[in-house]
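Give me the 3D structure for Phosphate:Na+ symporter.
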Amino acid sequence: MSGNWLQLLEVAALIVAGLGLLLVGIRQINENLRQLADLRLRRLLSQATESHRATAGLGLAAGAVAQSIHALILIMISLVTAGALDAKRAIPIINFANIGTSLLVLIAALDIRVAALFLVGLTGLLYYFDSENSGRRHYLIRALLGIGLLFLGLSFFKEGAKPLAELPLVMEIFSLSAQHFLIAFVVGAVLTLVLHSGATVTIIAMALAFSGVMDLPTAVMFVFGTGVGTGLGTLLLAFNQPGLGRQLALYQLLLKLAGLALLLPLFFIEVYLGVPLLLSGLQLLPLGITLQIALTYIIYQLACDVVIHPLHHRVEHFLEYIAPPTQEQVMGQPRFIYAGAEKDSASALALVNAEQAGLIERLPQLFDELRSDDSGPALAPASRSQERPHGTSFAMPTRRELHNANAQIAGITDDFLAALLGGQLAAQSLEQAIILKGRQQSLAGLMETLDQVIDELDRAGAALGKEDAAQSLVQNLVETLHMLLLTLSDVARDADAMDVALLQGLTADRSELMESIRQRLLNTQNLPIAARESLFAATSLFERCLWLIRRLSSSFTPAVEDDSALEPAAS
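Predicted structure for Phosphate:Na+ symporter (571 residues):
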């Protein structure tokens, strides 16, 4: 009796150890390959082209490297939300990335235990003697160690699972699963939700099938369940993402359901009507059951793409309807620059010039909420609107939405300029690009300073009563900055020499005036402490705004002559 218990304990230990090594190995592969390629992967994703071949290659490579569709979609969501990747270009990448995750499943189907043992030993030595403990070599060593641990864990798991096939309870459970395929489907989905990887769950199913614990039809349903688990898991991870981010997560779920819509009917027709289809085709191949299951996983990923491809336009419209982009996301899209425009440096510089002018024209709107009289805001938020998909419109954006959208466009423009400066530019183009880069830095600084000064003025206004004398100072600062920004937008649009000279005069040094205002604030009786602190900060920030506006105005040259380059980018 004690011998049976010891044998059972040994079996359990092998299974637990194998599963642990398997999961650690997969985690090592995922984390270190992503560290090895993360920045490059992000750059490639953000530069994805409309070319189907390039998109397919990028998606396959991204899926093979990331080995976790959850992680990859979260990366793409961050790029889409930041405006670095268009959602419509991200969707086909997801299709091919799912297929790319098949690489690990296919490798795991091979019997390379001896090679895995050598790999663990060699990478262990390299890991021990890696004095740098950082850099690309370190990540590569850890990724190789993860591959070795994965296969070592898989061999332990297979060895431990073999005796399970002979236990009456296990035989009864899997017999029930074979009769009621829904159980296998649900187990596959739940495990995928827990482990965040359909490939990992498929590898576990391969090990169980190799040990005789699971037959092919049950394993196939197990694989189908991983698809639903992957889709639901991605949706749960991205549930709080607004607009475009949620579209990508919903697309992953629709993609997996599309594959099931094709394969599930074929499966049940074969099982219950005896028509030879998927299972018969797999069994005809001279392959072991692990390779048959790996092939099922690949077929499922391909089926998803085959079904969804003819419907992709309808799917895009459906996603826009069910998860429309937010106002901030719509406003945060550049009007002029677009991916690939940097290839023609002359027109690209004109596009940057136009994009910067468009950003500057938006800056006066930041003060709309503060510019008020007794009757309320001078520009009521609902009085203007902006178009959104499907012909509906947004209300006037809040200051925070407008600031975030402007910051997003500024970031995209800065990246675009960096790509331009990283290429080969003629001397004249290089000089202009450097001027635009300096202007972009000043513009980013002005946007940040305006956000801070408006916060301080808002706090000061809230702390002061309507009849308070200091309230006029708040309104004077607001109106002055608003007027200066309107003048700056005229300069940005026309680059008129008289406007530039006027703005230079208006933004001359005002340090003595600001100091006298601060002295008056100190001498003012009954001024709330919170209002005094905010007004002190606001006057200092006001001086910085003047300096930045003056610096920006001096950077403008006569308008770029190539008007054809100034057409807004197609949305």
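The beta strands are 372-373, 376-377, 386-387, 393-394. Let me know if you want a second pass.
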